[in-house]
Amino acid sequence: MLMLLTSLTAHAESLQVLHWWKSASERKAVEFLQEKLDYESVSWRDAVVPSGSGVGASIVLRSRILAGNAPEVAQLNGVLISEWDSLGLLLDVDTVAAAAKWEQSLLPTVLTLVQPHGHFVAAPLGIHRINTLFYNRKLFKQHGLAVPQTWSEFERLALKLQSLGIAALAQSSEPWQVVSLFETLVLAEGGTEFYRDLFVLRKPGAFADMRLTRALQHLRDLKKWMARPLQERTWEEVSRQLVDGEAAMMVMGDWAKAELNLWGQLGDDSFACAAVPATANFHLYDIDTFAMLATPKSARTAQEKLAKVVMSNAVQAEYNQIKGSVPVLRNPDMTKMDSCARASWKLFASGVAAQVPSLAHRMATDEITKDAMIAEIHQYFLDDKVSTIETQRRLATIARTVTRPVTRPIARKK
Ligand code: BGC
Questions:
Q1: CA 319 → CA 15, 154, 288, distances in Å?
Q2: 156-169 tens-digit pLDDT
Q3: Residue spans of the chain under pLDDT 70
Q4: In sequence order, which residues have a C-beta less than 8 Å from that of residue 368 and are 6 or more positions away?
Q5: In whole angstroms, what is the distance from residue 307 CA to residue 298 CA?
Q6: Collapsing DSSP states into helix, strand and coil, what is residue 43?
């Protein structure tokens, strides 16, 4: 890392990039992009706010914008892209997008995300799959275990693992990690339509539904299978529990695959990926994206260079291999994908019927609603005294009362 950083040259053009990647594989992905940008004679000034799933990074970004001190580029995933475009906070990269034919080359859902109101205002990096079940292959082989396809199979397996003295699930009690697990349970319980009714459309009736009751109870019930002590661990620490055999399985976005690979745990050998039980036909997704901010001093040329770099076929293939995600392209280079990535890309590319936007990772709803819902679900998970029906009521109130964001473009900086 030191060698790479010192070899990067300072150029006349530079970009400050605000992001939240801090783990070893995330840093490697950043260094890869830095290097590619360096070839374009643009220096990457790193503004990292380390925080799993970007909780802290979003807060810092918002306060910097309010203080008139925005970075030129920010990791701005999900619904926020459209909202901030509406507020005139983003700059377009239409020229680059037209030259590289983004309209033709991007997968349709990604296209809508980065071109919310007719202008391209962000450069997409890769698609992560949240409903990934990692399992410790050595343990499974050693004890002749089968990967669970349903939650009943999971229960039987968990019992068997218990008799062997092994916890079934590695899990942190960190709020976003609890809700990442929870959203997979909602999907398993109610399918895509119900999931959308809750978290995208926020239909009041959906929050009183028995399917939500069951998903909440399921979340709490799973605590008995989780490795102890149940603490607020980082996702890297949770991944360690899986590798060390403290737990046999882990539900985590596929960024964990990149980390495990970097630790020398080869996919399909020491560990493997499957879909979370009862969600094999769904792709619960999260798309990493760099938004171009309209800063007082124009950095358009450098921002356009970054957008061009990020979307090249070769960078897409290599970056996503390092990061554990999959390319955002309709015709990506498949040669660098492992079995986990191939399955993810194929399912996502199969169309909207399979795609489900992650709540915890900002793809389903606005930031305030997401944060309020995460707080409720987290509290429910931690405290067995909180009633399920009361939690459903509170979630319904959040869905009903939190202000809906602006969806029409107001102004645009040129
Ligand atoms: C991001 C990933 C990141 C993960 C853990 C997700 O929200 O999309 O890129 O690796 O959080 O921080």
A1: 19, 34, 12
A2: 999 999 999 999 99
A3: 1-8, 403-414
A4: 402, 403
A5: 15
A6: strand
CA 99/CA 233 separation, integer angstroms: 44
Is 53 close to ligand 1, i.e. is its CB under 6 Å away? yes
Which of helix, strand or coil describes residue 304?
A: helix
Q: Which residue has the tokens 């400050």?
A: 16
Structure tokens at 130: 């949240």
Retrieve residue 407's tokens: 């969806």
Q: How many CB atoms lie within 10 A of CB 111?
A: 19
Q: How far apart are alpha carbons 284 and 199 in whole angstroms?
A: 13
Q: Answer yes or no: is the C-beta of 288 below 6 A from any ligand 1 atom.
A: yes
259 lines ligand 1 (CB under 6 A): no
| Paired tokens of 318 | 């290599």
Lookup result for tokens 């969806």: 407
C-beta separation of 329 from 359 below 8 A = no
What pTM did the predictor assign?
A: 0.95
Strand partners, 123: 290
Kind of pairing between the strands at 13-19 and 42-48 = parallel
With the most atoms of ligand 1 within 8 angstroms of its CB, the residue from 49, 58, 128 to mutate is 128
